[in-house]
């Protein structure tokens, strides 16, 4: 038999649930701009009538109202996993694209201050000298050749400094990122511990779960870390297959090779050491931003500088060979115009001549003609190797930018999918609040009606 007070209890449960649901909606609105916040939802379950069979009693209750079963986060772990992966890939490409854009600006091609223009001016200066190798303007023309040669050397070495400075910045970035990853690992271990203990004692750990996912996402951006969420809510993080965080224990993450603690290069590939919580250590190659830094330091920059050194060596050798075939103003065979150490071409290349009279402009020992200067000025394809290098570098930069743009489309798509599920929408929350307000009013009306009925039943029945 249904109790006369059952409806009051049902209405009261509805009032309690709607109050909690409105608190959740209010919290969502308050945190609409909070980074890493996932939208909450008040979960409920119907409280059924008695379901235990009895021989002499059957419950006539249609239900005992509604119960709040918890407050859940509107997230999808599969989306979280994909988001971490795509953001890691995005960081890998972005750090390279940004660095190479700065290098490309420093190269200055095409432009009046680039190496290509310097080579053109160098050959043009030889052409000018060939027209008057022994006349009154010869001294100025000879000095102009040496000045143009010095410009070629300075421009080439300037690119070495430009790339070296960018490489130095990337090494500092590697140290900074590695330190951040190490700190994030320890922070995540503490959060894991709080999540597990909070769930055991029935506390609301949603804020901790937000922090867990935010840290996991940042670690994926920095290293391409793979995060696995365990059944107890804790997160296990692996970098390059090596475990960095497991439960409430965290290992360490450091630079193993490639960069010294002071930010200098040690001549080795950039690798990282992961010490597991159990004490084992592994050397790994990271992804994400650190993977992009490693690609720049280990492949992109060394390849470009090696190709540039080959270009400079070719220019120097060809000029020196042709110059040796001529004679200077004193009738002596031409000496080398450029000198360099084969082991470090860009770092040591310089103009070997300081006296303009030593320029071998003539093809004969009389020093009266300018045929040899003309031949140097007309050396075919002197700058072709550099043009191919710059064109290839520009194509690589453009390709990288296209890859970054394409990856950005994927990253944006997965971010939008996450926002649709876990992002806070003011319009949606206002609709929810309106529905909850009407629900609260209806439950209150039920309670008032039942109270009036009970008043009539108790106080007015049998009254004459």
Assign an overall shape. elongated
Strand order of the largest sheet: 3-4-5-6
User: How many helical elements?
Assistant: 10
Helix content: 55-70%
Could you tell me the mean pLDDT? 92
* Distance between the first and last residues' Cα: 29 Å
Radius of gyration: 38 Å
Helix-strand sequence:
HEEHHHHEEEEEEEHEHEHHH
Beta-strand share of residues:
5-15%
Secondary structure class reads: alpha+beta
Number of strands: 11
Largest sheet: 4 strands, antiparallel
Unreliable residue runs = none
Structural overview:
This protein is α+β, with helices and mostly antiparallel strands. Among the domains are: 106 residues, no CATH class; 183 residues, no CATH class. Strands 3-4-5-6 form a four-stranded antiparallel β-sheet. α1 packs antiparallel against α10. The longest helix is centred in the middle third of the chain and has 63 residues. It is elongated and about 145 Å long. The model has no long low-confidence stretch (mean pLDDT 92).
Sum this structure up briefly:
The protein has helices at residues 6-30, 77-107, 115-131, 138-200, 206-223, 288-324, 345-348, 371-377, 384-422, 426-459; strands spanning 40-46, 66-73, 226-229, 235-239, 242-246, 249-250, 252-257, 271-275, 281-284, 338-339, 350-351. The protein is α+β, with helices and mostly antiparallel strands and 464 residues long. Among the domains are: 6-74 and 423-459, no CATH class; 98-165 and 297-411, no CATH class.
